[in-house]
Structure formats: C-alpha cells, structure tokens
Amino acid sequence: MAENSTGGENLSYRLTVNGGDREVRDAWIGESLLTVLRDRLGCVAAKGACEQGECGSCSVLVDNELVCSCLVLAASAVGSHITTVEGLSPPGELTDVQQAFVEAGAVQCGFCTPGLISAVHNLLDRQSEPTELEIKEALSGNICRCTGYGRIVEAVNLAASRRTGNDQS
Fold it and tell me: Disulfide: which of 5, 26, 122, 124 matches 66 by Cβ 3.0-4.6 Å?
C-alpha cells in the first residue's frame, strides 16, 4: 500500500457497479462513493452538488436502497451491489421511467434527473401504485430548481400506470 498526502495508506478493492466487477486501485480509504464512481470508474451520471446529502443529485442504489453517494464511503460498499442510472437499462435504451420523464417534459436542465430517476425506480420497485403523497415523500430528498415538480409527479404516475397496465395514453 502507498501513502497518500494526508499520511494515510491507500488501498485497492473491488466494487460491483451496474452488474460488473470493477477494481478501484490506489484509493484513499476516506473517498466517497460519489468520488469513486465519477473520478475513478467513469460513472458520471451521479452528480456532485451539495456534498452533504441534501440535494439528491448523487443518488444511487446500493443493494436496492436509495442512498446519497456523497455520504457513503466507497470502501464500505465492498460486497454490495451498486446501481447508478447508467446501469438501470442497457446502453442506448431508456427505462420506462426515463421514457415517462421525456414524454411528460420532466427533464429540463438535467442536472437533477439521474438522482430523480434512481429515486423513482426505487419507489416503483417498492410500490407499484404510489399515491401522490408517497410520490412526494419519495422525491423529497431530490432538489430540482427548474421544473416545479408537477411534470416529475406526472412522469411518475405515467410510469406507474404503464407498469400496472393502467395506461390510458
């Protein structure tokens, strides 16, 4: 192991990201999962904004639980299954939630969108027909400065209705 600039040791470990085993080399033990995903593994959809777990732009799924990756130490995720928005569908394809966001006009600047998409997938995987209150609660950890949330809620309802076969469009 090598020493880093703070005098601590660097280490190497493996993470399971989007279904693949990825090696993280010469890493500082205190690096956040967000930093490792973006800077070391090239999974750049999760965004770094507040770095305090307040905005949701860095939301990813760890063992099917929604987390703010800026608050998780990457080394603590060894042995877990990490899913970023890039891993929710095959490359070049949209998930049902992403398609609903496009159709409902819920994507504007796009900065918050990956975190919101992860949050909505997490919600709909747990609750197939969420109420408006459940949708708002599930999205409460994600800040969007562009949309006003109306179209986002519409997109969640659209994706939910398609998953349950109640789509009227």
Answer: 122
| Composition of the chain by helix, strand, coil, percent to 5 | 40, 20, 45
Provide φ and ψ at 111, rounded to 5°: -65, -45
Determine the Cα–Cα distance for residues 9 and 140; give it in Å rounded to an integer.
38
The rounded distance, in Å, linking the Cα atoms of 143 and 56 is 6
Residues 6+ apart with CB under 8 A from 137: none
Q: Tell me the sheet residues that pair with 32.
A: 73
Q: What is the pTM of this model?
A: 0.89
- The two structure tokens encoding residue 3: 């020493």
pLDDT one-digit tens code per residue, 99-144:
999 999 999 888 999 999 999 999 999 999 999 999 999 999 999 9
